[in-house]
């Protein structure tokens, strides 16, 4: 990302190359900003930042503590915190539960390459105004985990719902809310317990 320090030159590696370390994720305020590759960062796409891997490298990220995994395409540089080896997009973090945990031990493995979309001279257009809003706690590949999160929220007095998308992810949400400020107040109230929560429009 443009606000990050410059990175070392990219490394040439083949399929099967692996690395172990700590993974983290990033979303706002970098969403819709230019990445080091020239692409506009989309926190809802399956991408990641790595210090040296060539842009377009596809890696499989395995959580060493839970076994959850996700594949991402490298399109940015980072992370620049000692011990961390990869920064996942928000969407990728959700798949393996990293949006809830913040950081986790992982093993990454190069599994191929994927051409990047041609960079646009302008960021993508803003989405039309939403009619209502959710506070999304997380999206999970396992139903049982979503149910556990729902139960934790209900224990603290929140009324949560679980929605299943075509991508087969189980989304735990609060709402819906007619006004965005109402959703923001709810998110602010729970942010200490659920720092990965974010506001999404209805239909999103």
Describe this structure in words.
The chain has 204 residues and is of the alpha+beta class. Helices cover 17% and strands 33% of the residues. It has helices spanning 90-95, 98-101, 143-155, 180-190; strands at residues 18-26, 47-49, 57-63, 69-76, 84-89, 104-113, 133-140, 160-164, 170-177, 198-201. The strands form two sheets. Strands 1-5-2-4-3-6 form a six-stranded mixed beta barrel. A hairpin with a 5-residue loop joins strand 3 and strand 4 (69-76).
Spatial separation of the terminal alpha carbons: 25 Å
Widest beta sheet: strand line-up:
1-5-2-4-3-6
Task: Give the number of DSSP strands.
Answer: 10
Helix-strand topology string: EEEEEHHEEHEEHE
**Structural class computed from helices and strand pairing:** alpha+beta
Shape: globular
- Mean pLDDT level: 84
Share of helix, binned = 10-25%
Q: How many DSSP helices? A: 4
What is the gyration radius calculated from CA atoms? 17 Å
Low-confidence stretches: 1-9
Range of strand content: 25-35%
How would a textbook summarize the main sheet?
6 strands, mixed, barrel
Compact overview of the structure:
Helix content is 17%, strand content 33%.
Labels describing this entry:
single chain, 204 residues, alpha+beta, six-stranded mixed barrel, four-stranded antiparallel beta sheet, globular, disordered N terminus
Indicate the topology.
Blueprint: E1 18-26, E2 47-49, E3 57-63, E4 69-76, E5 84-89, H1 90-95, H2 98-101, E6 104-113, E7 133-140, H3 143-155, E8 160-164, E9 170-177, H4 180-190, E10 198-201
């Amino acid at each position: 990302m443009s606000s990050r320090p410059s990175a070392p030159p990219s490394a040439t590696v083949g399929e099967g190359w692996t690395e172990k370390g700590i993974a983290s994720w990033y979303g706002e305020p970098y969403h819709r900003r230019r990445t080091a590759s020239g692409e506009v960062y989309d926190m809802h796409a399956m991408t990641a930042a790595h210090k040296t891997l060539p842009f377009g490298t596809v890696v499989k990220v395995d959580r060493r503590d839970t076994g959850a995994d996700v594949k991402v395409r490298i399109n940015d540089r980072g992370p620049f915190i000692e011990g961390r080896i990869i920064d996942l997009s928000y969407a990728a973090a959700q798949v393996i539960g990293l949006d809830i945990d913040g950081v986790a031990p992982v093993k990454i493995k190069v599994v191929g390459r994927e051409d990047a979309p041609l960079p646009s001279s302008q960021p993508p257009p803003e989405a039309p105004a939403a009619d209502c809003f959710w506070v999304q706690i997380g999206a999970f590949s396992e139903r049982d985990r979503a149910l556990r999160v729902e139960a934790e929220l209900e224990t603290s007095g929140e009324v949560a719902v679980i929605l299943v998308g075509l991508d087969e992810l189980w989304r735990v949400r609060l709402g819906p809310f007619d006004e965005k400020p109402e959703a923001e107040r709810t998110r602010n109230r729970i942010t200490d317990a659920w720092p990965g929560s974010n506001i999404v429009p209805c239909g999103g």
